[in-house]
Amino acid sequence: MRPLKDAQLGAFTFFASALPHDVCGSNGLPLTPNSIKILGRFQILKTLTHPRLCQYVDISRGKHERLIVVAEHYESSLSDFQKRGITVLQMAYEVLEGLEFMNKHGMVHRALSGHNVLLDCKGNVKLAKFGLYHMTDHGADVDFPIGYPSYLAPEVIAQGSFHPSDPSRDVAPLPSGPKTDVWSLGVLLFELCAGRRLLQNIDISERLKFILTLGCMDDIVTVLAEEHGCLDTIKELPENVLELLRKCLTFLPSKRPTPTDLLRDHVFNGVSCLYTPFQKPVSLFSSSLRCAHLELPEDISELCKDDDEDYLSERAIDEVYHLWCLAGGDLEKELTNKEIIQSKPPICTLPNFVLEDGESFGQGRDRSFLLDDTTVTLSLCQLRNRLKDVAGEAYYPLLEDEQSSLPQSNSSNELSATVTLPLIIRERDTEYQLIRIILFDRLLKAYPYKKNLVWKEARVDIPPLVRGLAWAALLGIEGDIQAKYESIDKDTPIPTDRQIEVDIPRCHQYDELLSSPQGHVKFRRVLKAWVVSHPDLVYWQGLDSLCAPFLYLNFNNEALAYACMSAFIPKYLYNFFLKDNSHVIQEYLTVFSQMIAFHDPELSNHLNEIGFIPDLYAIPWFLTMFTHVFPLHKIFHLWDTLLLGNSSFPFCIGVAILQQLRDRLLANGFNECILLFSDLPEIDIERCVRESINLFCWTPKSATYRQHAQPPKTAGDNGFGKTATYYSSDYQDMSKTDLVSIINLFVPVFNSSSIDTR
């Protein structure tokens, strides 16, 4: 995302429409709440970055279907702007630039008005709330209309309001197109030129009727000017401005131009030359050269910062918001302080009566509270106060160290005391996260050149904000992943489709993002892409759980989620997804049994005596790399370390889990152990990770040898050197042994040369 610069963070709130309690979907499951649907659709808005659009940052779901949206905000708007002439043309051109960019991404504004056209400190246009129509599914998921009566296009008014629960209308109206925004822009420009608001002296119903009657008029601009007593003012406008007004305020949408048409119209001949076309920033994993358009100032001293420079404003908007939350920011509290969220006494919220299924009647929600159009500015004072002692050098860490080819962690030098604290505390420490995020941001921008340093810093920890890209770097993702993903056929039906459809609604559905319809669509596409692109492998139940962490972290980048998944499986689950994978899994479980015997003979003997073998509990662990048994927030911490190790590290995680349950396992028999693992008790993940590392270091490399592990890769000649992995590579020097011989061994066989090599 763009740097914060002179912008502020703003928040506004609205309610999604509530669904009845006794209705299920076609799959027999309860209907997805509309707030979840909106949350899923919102995510794509975070990827829309353009100089004429206010950047969307986050959406938060509260009680009773309340949603709070956070976005880039400015105090000044077009409502405060009353100038004419060439500046009006510039204003129109900038608005059209934003609308055209939205249209290219399949979106329209539909809520264009004076207070939604913001102005930055340089007077440049920034369109706000442009995603409300898209995220609400063209208004279907809310009980209020999208748009403002005076600015609605005639065709929108003629369609009337619609809600899916309305029995009087069974056919939804067509979604608004780009031309509806052109009419709204025409009304805005007319107000700017006339210096007054349109149709403010009549009520809403009469206002809508008046707009519909304009279809009978030959010159709408003249009629509006006469109606508002500003005909002389309008006649004095330059001819090109009048022509633009008439084109925008064309009654029939079939004859009205689109934003793209207007941008190329001759009325902007004197304006278009003042603007350079927008170039989309190059993403990290693409075939384009990221430094192709890099321009340094002629005077290099311009890059130097003053002592009073606001370093925080140079950070990305989403990064600043993340730090604001860590510093104690609370969206609901901010809105409550401004009386946007108002609580009622509990006695006033009781329903008149409640049915057995939980549906209540009476005490309906006040329609005036369905949408509050006020945008509340989020104060950054508390965050700036927290970061006041952070030195300016921390915002620009040096990555080159001529004294040592393997430098120590920069963050460890800055905050050595914090590094020793538990991970959950470090992730909530504002100053520590700032330094870690900045460091990882710079390292990832230098990827793959700084690949070794990414590995080195990941040994300390990975900031949650950059975890998705950091994991991709640890997995060695490179090249044009988007082109590869787009080349895969994800639409043609295949036999696996049915099983995927059944598995997705059961996969980590406690998470709001993954349970949304958009999440299901993305799940389906990524899983199908993997199945189609790996014809030698098959879809096994559990693959959806394996996909979940990558999809969650890269929700707006399916290609990266697919690439990470495709790199992860051969490294840790090589040949696990063969059609006949019995020999692979049997060898894996046998080595795991030997690992238990090596590290905890007493526990191993007890489990063998009662017949509680790994086949009964460990297959879901390893087939999904623990994603089937742990929630996502634990998987993130577990995989942060797993990705630093080789394919034998999961054995150590499995043993560490058993050792946390050791006392209960030793005290129970077969039936009790089955019940225990049917609902796995709470596991301390940080302790599990710590003990896994120790177990790995204590295990001879050859003890975890598997003949079905991934063959060693030849060293890549990319000029970046060998990756400085946290743990050693897989052991490949043992002679191959048949599976029967391995099963008959209760303890691992290891080569003496592999002892004390780590």
From TrEMBL:
<keyword id="KW-0206">Cytoskeleton</keyword>
<dbReference type="GO" id="GO:0005819">
    <property type="term" value="C:spindle"/>
</dbReference>
<protein>
    <recommendedName>
        <fullName>TBC domain-containing protein kinase-like protein</fullName>
    </recommendedName>
</protein>
<dbReference type="InterPro" id="IPR035969">
    <property type="entry name" value="Rab-GAP_TBC_sf"/>
</dbReference>
<dbReference type="GO" id="GO:0005524">
    <property type="term" value="F:ATP binding"/>
</dbReference>
<dbReference type="Pfam" id="PF00069">
    <property type="entry name" value="Pkinase"/>
</dbReference>
<dbReference type="InterPro" id="IPR000719">
    <property type="entry name" value="Prot_kinase_dom"/>
</dbReference>
<keyword id="KW-0343">GTPase activation</keyword>
<dbReference type="GO" id="GO:0005769">
    <property type="term" value="C:early endosome"/>
</dbReference>
<comment type="function">
    <text>Component of the FERRY complex (Five-subunit Endosomal Rab5 and RNA/ribosome intermediary). The FERRY complex directly interacts with mRNAs and RAB5A, and functions as a RAB5A effector involved in the localization and the distribution of specific mRNAs most likely by mediating their endosomal transport. The complex recruits mRNAs and ribosomes to early endosomes through direct mRNA-interaction. Also involved in the modulation of mTOR signaling and expression of mTOR complex components. Involved in the control of actin-cytoskeleton organization.</text>
</comment>
<comment type="similarity">
    <text>Belongs to the protein kinase superfamily.</text>
</comment>
<dbReference type="InterPro" id="IPR000195">
    <property type="entry name" value="Rab-GAP-TBC_dom"/>
</dbReference>
<dbReference type="GO" id="GO:0030496">
    <property type="term" value="C:midbody"/>
</dbReference>
<dbReference type="InterPro" id="IPR011009">
    <property type="entry name" value="Kinase-like_dom_sf"/>
</dbReference>
<feature type="domain" description="Protein kinase">
    <location>
        <begin position="1"/>
        <end position="269"/>
    </location>
</feature>
<keyword id="KW-0967">Endosome</keyword>
<feature type="domain" description="Rab-GAP TBC">
    <location>
        <begin position="461"/>
        <end position="646"/>
    </location>
</feature>
<dbReference type="GO" id="GO:0005096">
    <property type="term" value="F:GTPase activator activity"/>
</dbReference>
<keyword id="KW-0963">Cytoplasm</keyword>
<dbReference type="Pfam" id="PF00566">
    <property type="entry name" value="RabGAP-TBC"/>
</dbReference>
<dbReference type="GO" id="GO:0004672">
    <property type="term" value="F:protein kinase activity"/>
</dbReference>
